[in-house]
């Protein structure tokens, strides 16, 4: 846009040029600047359309103060190109920043995953250690219970051995000792020991009629005949074998096993028992009842 100062200058230049070209040196000298500007605004568009040289003259003057259309377009083009380059640079920086942020987050996630894996591994080791400690504790308790049971069994066996001595020397009855051995069989093996007391009219056991006393165990269809005594000598071993045969004839059933349980079995009695097929054990806990 041309301001008032430029319009005034243009008007004065145009007036001088027009007057010089037409030989009128004094034309419009008396006009005021305001009137010239008004006249110029009113007639200039028409004059530019009718006189191409006037347009060229005006462009020559204004070109010194204002850029041409091409220059203006070039300037805008350069500005747009610069803005485009700036935007590309900014987009690249944003992309690089996003990639860097993504890399940092991925790295942080990897570290968290690694930490979680370490915690899981630590928890697994703790669980294994707890399980191992529990197993060792249970094993220790089991061993303690076994040792305690063994100690108690040995203590009871010692008590029975002492009881056997007492029964032999009259300090304890034979029946009390027999009942103690029988109770061990009942508690340890879950079998029932039946005391059989029958009369031998023919005297096949003692050579004359007398009472015959035996301990009988029936387990899983097996007939087991036992002799539970504080001490057994050679004659007693033969007597036990005759009692078994008496029971077999009386009840028409053969014994599957003959067992003598006594803490004191004489050496000669042991040889007789082996010859007769009699099992011999020092204590009720040693008897394999199957």
- CATH topology of the largest domain, which one? Trna Endonuclease, Chain: A, domain 1
Indicate how many domains the architecture comprises: 3
Write out the strand line-up for the largest beta sheet, numbering strands in chain order: 1-2-3-4-5
Number of strands: 5
What integer is the average pLDDT? 77
**Range of helix content:** 55-70%
Report the major sheet. Answer: 5 strands, mixed
Global shape? rod-shaped
* Tally of contiguous helical segments: 7
Protein name: PD-(D/E)XK nuclease superfamily protein
Organism: Candidatus Kentrum eta
Task: Describe the model.
α6 packs parallel to α7. The chain is of the alpha/beta class. Strands 1-2-3-4-5 form a five-stranded mixed beta sheet. The protein is rod-shaped. It contains seven helices and five strands; from the N terminus they run αααααβββαβαβ. The chain is 67% helix and 11% strand. The longest helix has 100 residues. About 6% of the residues have low confidence. The chain has three domains: 63 residues, no CATH class; 78 residues; 114 residues, Trna Endonuclease, Chain: A, domain 1. InterPro entries: DUF3782, PDDEXK_10. This is PD-(D/E)XK nuclease superfamily protein. It comes from Candidatus Kentrum eta. It holds the Pfam family DUF3782.
């Amino acid at each position: 846009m041309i301001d008032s100062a430029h319009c005034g200058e243009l008007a004065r230049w145009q007036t001088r040029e027009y007057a010089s070209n037409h030989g009128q040196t004094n034309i419009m000298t008396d006009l005021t600047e305001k009137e010239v500007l008004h006249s110029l605004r009113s007639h200039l568009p028409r004059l530019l359309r009718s006189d191409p040289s006037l347009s060229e003259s005006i462009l020559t003057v204004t070109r010194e103060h204002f850029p041409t259309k091409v220059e203006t377009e070039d300037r805008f083009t350069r500005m747009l190109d610069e803005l485009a380059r700036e935007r590309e640079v900014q987009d690249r920086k944003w992309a690089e920043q996003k990639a860097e942020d993504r890399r940092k987050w991925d790295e942080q996630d990897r570290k968290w995953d690694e930490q979680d894996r370490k915690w899981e591994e630590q928890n697994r080791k703790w669980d294994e250690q707890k399980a191992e400690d529990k197993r060792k504790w249970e094993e220790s308790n089991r061993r303690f219970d076994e040792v305690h049971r063994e100690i108690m069994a040995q203590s009871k066996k010692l008590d029975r051995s002492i009881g056997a001595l007492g029964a032999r020397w009259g300090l304890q009855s034979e029946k009390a000792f027999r009942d103690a051995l029988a109770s061990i069989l009942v508690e340890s093996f879950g079998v029932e020991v039946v005391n059989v007391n029958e009369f031998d009219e023919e005297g096949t056991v003692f050579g004359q009629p007398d009472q015959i006393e035996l301990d009988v165990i029936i387990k899983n269809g097996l007939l087991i005949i036992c002799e539970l005594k504080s001490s057994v000598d050679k004659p007693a071993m033969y007597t036990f074998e005759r009692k078994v045969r008496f029971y077999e004839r009386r009840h028409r059933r053969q014994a599957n096993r003959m067992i003598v349980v006594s803490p004191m079995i004489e050496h000669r009695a042991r040889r007789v028992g082996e010859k007769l097929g009699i099992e011999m054990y020092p204590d009720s806990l040693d008897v394999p009842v199957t």
